[in-house]
TrEMBL record:
The keyword Translocase is annotated on this UniProt entry: yes
One GO MF term attached to the UniProt entry: ABC-type sulfate transporter activity
CDD domains for the chain: ABC_CysA_sulfate_importer (cd03296)
Cross-referenced SUPFAM superfamilies: MOP-like, P-loop containing nucleoside triphosphate hydrolases
Top-level taxon: Bacteria
Limits of the ABC transporter domain: 3-237
Protein's UniProt keywords contain Amino-acid biosynthesis: no
Annotated source species: Nitrosomonas communis
Protein name: Sulfate ABC transporter ATP-binding protein
Keywords in alphabetical order: ATP-binding, Cell membrane, Membrane, Nucleotide-binding, Sulfate transport, Translocase, Transport
Gene3D superfamilies in the record: P-loop containing nucleotide triphosphate hydrolases
UniProt GO cellular component terms: ATP-binding cassette (ABC) transporter complex
SMART domains to which the protein is assigned, alphabetical: AAA
One Pfam family it belongs to: ABC_tran
Amino acid sequence: MSIEIRHLSKQFGSFAALRDINLNIHSGELLALLGPSGSGKTTLLRVIAGLETADSGQVLFNNEDATSQPIRERQVGFVFQHYALFRNMTIFENVAFGLRVRPRQNRLKTQEIHERVTNLLKLVQLDWLADRYPHQLSGGQRQRIALARALAVEPKVLLLDEPFGALDAKVRKELRTWLRRLHDEMHITSIFVTHDQEEALEVSDRVVVMNEGRIEQIGTPDEVYERPANPFVYEFLGHVNLFHGRIHQGRAWIGDVEIDAPEHAEAEDLAAVAYVRPHDIEVDRVMNGESALPAHVVHILSVGPVVKLELVQEGNQNKNLIQVEISKERFRDLQLVKGDQVFIKPRRLDLFLHQLH
Ligand SMILES: Nc1ncnc2c1ncn2[C@@H]1O[C@H](COP(=O)(O)OP(=O)(O)OP(=O)(O)O)[C@@H](O)[C@H]1O
């Protein structure tokens, strides 16, 4: 089932929770809605589900307007952050629940219900827990059962609102991989709300980055991470260093370092900020080429395959730390210790005009 969202807006009193949202979700896609708290992710999910009505705009399921379609006709399955399993029912009965409460004329035969529930429990790899009660399961197991229960009624769309939000970091990571694999087998159009960037980037086919009720960028995890559309996305997705400089007729200067900026050919001596990821900064002990920024090392973190350096730019008023990531081999070649002077140069950067942000 494909989903199209057209010019969707929603106010709560005078507060705009969604502002002119436009989005196409492909059939079978796993899409993450990512953004800070209050950015409108849950509201958007609830409007798609039919739990909330928008003030204006449309939701189309398979090109048909679903805006006024009641919830039960939308065939959506839900999984929320807090597993809402029935405490007095076994795991098997929890998963079977949606099938048992169907009107008699649509209800499967007892044997068919048994088969479907058994298959689902196998799919979430918890068939051995069928006779237990929810309190006898771990948080991660309960979320997998919540997912099996949502899938039991064969939804066309699966909506997951921070499904792993209440779990500890290790279990979250395991369930991420597991959800990805499950989705690859089932191919149900799924929308997944999270404020955890790593989770969104690891699990989804595409990420929708939201902020203050608007979509800032839509793209594959690679696209939004490697080519952020604007400063908000840059800062929200991973660490980024900011260097202040100027742009003039297609050339930019950060300190003495001169950079091509063809996309700013029209700029006439404007203040700009360069956004540079920690792994996109070159470090050397000597000035390599005509220009580089002098800095000194204030901290070294050398655990794991990547060495993280914290530097302070010399002669710079603000003592903001510059974070740099280099390989262990490069670190060994440089033989750096705390206090050493280095010269740095951005290998790749994005320039944004200062007055716009
Ligand atoms: N029923 C409501 N009445 C009034 N304001 C609401 C209501 N529901 C949501 N809001 C407001 O709308 C904004 C968006 O909320 P929403 O829950 O969609 O954000 P979110 O991105 O999912 O945040 P979180 O990650 O914290 O869940 C918030 O500022 C919230 O306070």
